[in-house]
Design goal:
- By secondary structure, the protein is α/β, with parallel strands linked by helices.
- The chain has three domains: 8-112, Cobalt-precorrin-4 Transmethylase, domain 1 (3-Layer(aba) Sandwich); 118-226, Methyltransferase, Cobalt-precorrin-4 Transmethylase, Domain 2, CATH 3.30.950; 236-278.
- It is built from eleven helices and ten strands.
- The strands form two sheets. Strands 3-2-4-1-5 form a five-stranded parallel beta sheet, with helices on both faces. The chain has a five-stranded mixed beta sheet with strand order 6-7-10-8-9.
- Helix 9 runs antiparallel to helix 10 (252-263), helix 9 (236-247) packs across helix 11 and helix 10 (252-263) crosses helix 11.
- The protein starts with 7 loop residues before the first strand and ends with a helix.
- The structure holds S-adenosylmethionine.
- S-adenosylmethionine binds at residues 15-16, 85, 87-89, 92-94, 117-119, 163-165, 189-194, 221-223.
Length: 279
């Protein structure tokens, strides 16, 4: 008979406020013999604070495959492991998914704990009324790739949720406005659960100057949330074709005429739209 593996616990940790650790997370971190941490130096003080005697294993994005192997060896030896990231929930824009997959593939039991997650925390205070939302995480760091990624999302009727680093927040907001348009609502959720927490909503077209007006607004950790695309009777297919033709360098008039011929949409409306897009 094969021996049953000890469980792998996936344990969320606070985003900034130590009181946000759950009682269950506390208990598990204090009880397990091993904690696999994204950054052992970062998690060490938290474990000490919780009175955990667990030994630490490094499990970061550059060693996830080897870490999975080490974790599995511990589980096979009957020793439970808790997986933590620097802050929030492991495997959400953080390492963890490969480890979880490896353990499950080996027939192990993965026990997830609910807890802090920046996306869910931001959404709860954003006041966006969409019934559905799409969590994207980090957009590409280069503007061209970022704009391409945003074009894929542009016509979705869902609220969009992004993570962003402070040194990229201005350029990302500029690209969001360029691709998604000025009318969307942007919610800037910054430093959640920390001393300088702020959640501010405004039209996307005003966001860049709002951020630039005070350098403090560009500091810290960010979740950027956007209202979804409202088609308001717009012909999204005609608009998509029009954008493609314009991006290919066709003059406004010709692009409008061809888009109308291809999709059956009204030429005059497409002409006005092409002028706006060009503008
Ligand atoms: N796994 C984490 C979670 O569950 O939210 C996310 C980890 S990801 C590497 C880090 C990003 O999460 C930051 O760049 C920021 O976008 C977002 N984030 C983390 N803590 C935050 C906070 N206190 N306030 C706002 N955003 C935060």
């Amino acid at each position: 008979m094969t021996k049953e593996l000890a469980p792998l616990y996936v344990v969320p940790t606070p985003l900034g406020n130590l009181k946000d650790i759950s009682e269950r997370a506390r208990e598990i971190l204090a009880a397990v013999p091993w904690v696999a941490a994204e950054d052992t130096r970062h998690s060490g003080p938290l474990l000490k604070h919780l009175g955990s005697q667990a030994r630490l294993l490094a499990a970061h994005e550059h060693n996830e495959a080897e870490a999975a192997q080490q974790i599995l060896a511990r589980l096979e030896a009957g020793e439970a492991v808790a997986l933590v990231s620097d802050a929030g929930t492991p495997a959400i824009s953080d390492p963890g998914a490969r480890i979880v997959a490896r353990v499950r593939a080996a027939g192990g039991r993965v026990i997830p704990l609910p807890g802090p997650c920046a996306a869910a925390t931001a959404l709860s205070a954003a006041g966006l009324e969409e019934d559905h939302w799409l969590f994207y995480g980090f957009l590409p760091s280069k503007s061209g790739q970022r704009q391409k990624a945003l074009e894929v999302l542009r016509d979705l009727p869902y609220a969009l949720v992004f993570y962003e680093a402070p040194h990229r927040v201005l350029e990302t907001v500029a690209d969001l406005a360029a691709v998604l348009g000025a009318e969307r609502t942007l919610v800037v959720a910054r430093e959640l659960t920390k001393l300088f927490e702020s959640v501010h909503s405004l039209p996307l077209g005003e966001a860049l100057s709002w951020l630039e007006a005070d350098p403090n607004r560009q500091k810290g950790e960010f979740v950027l949330l956007l209202s979804g695309c409202r088609d308001d009777g717009r012909d999204l297919e005609a608009e998509r074709v029009l954008r493609l033709l314009l991006a290919d360098g066709l003059p406004v008039k010709q692009a409008a005429r061809l888009a109308a011929a291809i999709t059956g949409a009204a030429k005059n409306a497409l002409y006005e739209q092409a002028l706006a897009l060009k503008g």
